[in-house]
Design a protein that fits this description.
The protein is of the alpha+beta class. The protein contains 5 helices and 13 strands. It has a 5-stranded mixed β-sheet, covered by helices on one side. A 4-stranded mixed β-sheet has the order 3-8-7-6, with helices on one face. Strands 1-2 form a two-stranded antiparallel ribbon. Strand 1 and strand 2 form a beta hairpin. The longest helix has 18 residues. The structure holds zinc ion (ZN) (2 copies).
Length: about 220
Amino acid sequence: MLQKTCPRCGKSSSDVAFIAAFCKDCYLQRQPLYELPELELDRCVKCGRMRLKGFWRDEKQLPDYLREKIKSNHVIKSIAAKLHVDPDSKLAHADVRITVQAEGQTVALDDRLDFRFIKTQCPDCALMSGGYHEAIIQLRGNPERVERLLPKLLRRLEARTFISKVVEHKEGPDIQVGKKRPALEVLSQLKLEFETSNKLVGEHQNKRVYRTTACVRLE
Ligand SMILES: [Zn+2]
Ligand SMILES: [Zn+2]
């Protein structure tokens, strides 16, 4: 490739990266490729998820969100972000790598995006800390099988909803599960047979609230 010399600083394209006729630094000083947003986001102090466009999302969803928030006259090809949070501070930042198509070439830029967090609790964590649970899964029967199943079941349940508490009885554990539907779905996925019963536990906004108990018997 033909060697270029930056008309502004005199650096050579054999030493530094160029964008069009200028070295990268000089080009970006004259004409930034994008503009980073000023962000203030709700962040849950318990689970660390952030409210992005109305939904509670984890860090993995941050790049998609940033793609909509970063202003650029060029095509943004990709965004990667690594979040750095100090639990004692409202301020955080992300190391971002933004890849832009500009002047017929692909330019990757490392940058720092500062955030301001509003510390709050997401609805799931608020419910969980209140001991809320719509379902109880009882594991009964063969103690060895119960012991083997419990950690696996908890992992699956936590991926779908939350566990308020596990209460050990001498007949076996009672798992207090936040949401009923995922609780029953996880049992079905694991091909476990269970019997359900419903109990009226109160009223909420003029609707009766039932708690479902699912009893799994392991032979
Ligand atoms: Zn230059
Ligand atoms: Zn949370």
